[in-house]
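To: structure subgroup
Subject: Chain for Friday's discussion

All,

I'm putting the inputs and outputs inline so they're searchable in the archive.
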Amino acid sequence: MVDETGVVKKGRHSAGVAKQDVGCVGCVGQVEQAQVGVLLAYAYASAKGVAFLDRALYLPQEWTDDPARCQQAGIPEEVGFATKPERAQALLERAWEAGVPATWVTADSVYGDDRSLRIWLEAHEQAHVLAVAGKEDVNVAATGTQRRVSTLLQELQQTVPAAAWQRLSAGDGATGPRRYDWSRLPLVPPLQAGYERGCLVRRSLRAPDDRQADVAFAPAGTDLATLVPVAGRRWTIEVACEAAKGEVGLDQYAVRSWTGWYRHSTLALFAQALLTVVRGHLAACAPTRAHRHKGRSQQAAWRAPRQRVPGSLAPFRQRRQAQQGRWPRRSPPTTSPSASCSRSPSPKCVACCGASSGAPSPPSSTCWTGPRGGASTRPWPHAATPDSVASSCHNYNCSTTSDFETRYD
């Protein structure tokens, strides 16, 4: 797949910058001060993604006509003016010399309108589907005459019967399959034996008057259902260009020289190709539907409530949860009612607790000393009943019985 992409630049010193078509998604026909690069991408036969193979910086003629400006930007002297289709032809030649297999070549009307590129592909017997604009001419096989594409598309409304249109998908888009009505018009046969030409006409479902054309060169007998997905593949390189700008920073650079642009674009496109290959391997290793269903069954089995086995800790946990506080975790020792403080009483406690020998006494059924025995005496929450309050000492931080009853009644 061949396409171009642009990066907007404000200055005039960057190599190849000029007023030209940006060539990005949603910017068709938008002219900006930008650098434009021609890109060659490879799409897998399956839906694994798009990987970029090569790149070439497009130099407008105003640059090649100014040697001093080219020298300042570091452009080699042997680099001359070449159109975008000529740049694309050079990229395809390098790919074939490197042994890259290609069943089809596809591109938009910028390259499809160049007849020399189409003839060069036919001479190499390279099957292709290239979009053509309304100003391009094609040779219709029925009449043997040359017709303008725009005129031919207008006549198809009356000449092509309804049964000749096939509703096919050109691939998946952001909202699902891109379905159109397609028809095929035979063109003059090529010089290569075993091949045929055709004009593919695409009609929109929402606006039947919106029709576009593609020129196809394919082995004889190739049906329309095979050509339509190839025509739709060229849209994937536009999406890949925008993804490369967002994921690997294809447009995030601040270089002006010819060498700097090639270094940055090479590293960015290599990173994008690496991500494509990694995603393809991860998709191949993804669990199938049966494996995912098995995994969900195992999760459901683990989450299912388990039956209580006799002798387990469930009864102990239920008793512990029934307690109002975190402490005590064990039943308090029973002592005589007279001993109610965990340490020697203070002078204020003599009146209510009586004299003591000074040695710490064990806690009563209504007092506890905290987890380590160093806290002030506190009542047992579960044991603080009116009868126990009346029959024992109810110190709460050296408070009187009436104060304790006021607090806990």
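Points worth raising on Friday:
The first strand starts at residue 2 and ends at 8.
The CA atoms of residues 109 and 247 lie 27 Å apart.

D.
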